[in-house]
């Protein structure tokens, strides 16, 4: 069966089979066999092709890895686990964002711990000035899901006040080039912080403040499904959020 996903990627990116063959160091006829004949390449070549297009190899070849390989790769994505967000050293946050060369993504409701940290905001502004794209998602103060989160944490309307304060504290920072902010009203199961292929995922637990909930440090690995699930979730929230233009 032809590999229509690989064919579509070539067409969408305006890449010829010859150019892809050169990039992954195979014969152009091999590329044709992958497309027309639906042949599955060796894992090294699958990784090279996926990296060339910036997608998961499982998207192009969904049946290439068996269950055990996917589980093993996903387990390898876990770098560290912290029992609480407050247990994550401040230096870890700084080093995490400082490493980003292409993109930083932040998905949360308020994130007052970041909004009030002048040093961390300066670091993010510096990354933006160096060309790193920064996308920030804050909660919509008028969203019923934001209000429900406040009730779940036992702080009621204080959550709305926190979100409004965060918007004000981040608003001036929005003048930095390469920084975008959107407001979302989704049910937030996790706060997600992205630095290129690395993630800090702060779980949300009913009745427990986010600061007391666990954090998982992940790094996207070829064949792994864990990090990509959170990355896809971030994109879905981003696509449905409202751009914030300021008052």
Give a brief outline of the structure.
The protein has 247 residues and is of the alpha+beta class.
Descriptors for this entry?
alpha+beta; elongated; 12 helices; Endonuclease, Chain A; 247 residues; 434 Repressor (Amino-terminal Domain); eight-stranded mixed sheet; 8 strands
Description of the structure:
By secondary structure, this protein is an alpha+beta fold. It folds into two domains: 4-64, 434 Repressor (Amino-terminal Domain), CATH 1.10.260.40; 74-243, Endonuclease Chain A (Endonuclease, Chain A). It contains twelve helices and eight strands. The chain has helices at residues 4-12, 17-24, 28-36, 43-53, 57-60, 67-75, 90-98, 112-115, 118-129, 144-153, 158-171, 226-240; strands at 78-82, 103-107, 133-139, 179-184, 190-195, 198-203, 215-219, 242-243. A hairpin with a 2-residue loop joins strand 5 (190-195) and strand 6. It is elongated and about 60 Å long.
């Amino acid at each position: 069966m032809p590999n229509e996903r690989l064919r579509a990627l070539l067409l969408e990116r305006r890449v010829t089979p010859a150019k892809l063959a050169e990039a992954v160091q195979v014969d152009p006829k091999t590329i044709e066999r992958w497309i027309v004949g639906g042949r599955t390449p060796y894992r090294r070549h699958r990784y090279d092709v996926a990296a060339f297009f910036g997608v998961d190899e499982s998207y192009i070849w969904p049946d290439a890895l068996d269950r055990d390989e996917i589980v093993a790769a996903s387990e390898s994505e876990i770098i560290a686990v912290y029992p609480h967000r407050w247990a994550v050293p401040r230096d870890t946050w700084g080093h995490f964002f400082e490493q980003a060369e292409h993109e930083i993504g932040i998905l949360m409701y308020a994130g007052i711990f970041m909004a009030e940290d002048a040093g961390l905001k300066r670091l993010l502004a510096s990354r933006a000035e160096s060309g790193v794209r920064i996308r920030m998602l804050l909660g919509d103060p008028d969203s019923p899901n934001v209000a429900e989160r406040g009730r779940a944490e036992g702080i009621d309307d204080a959550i709305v006040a926190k979100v409004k304060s965060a918007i004000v504290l981040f608003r001036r920072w929005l003048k930095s080039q390469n920084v975008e902010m959107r407001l979302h009203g989704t049910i937030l199961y996790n706060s997600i912080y992205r630095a290129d292929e690395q993630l800090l995922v702060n779980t949300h637990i009913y009745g427990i403040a986010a600061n007391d909930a666990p954090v998982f440090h992940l790094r996207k690995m070829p064949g792994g499904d864990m990090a990509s699930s959170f990355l896809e979730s971030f994109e879905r929230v981003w696509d449905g959020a409202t751009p914030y233009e300021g008052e």
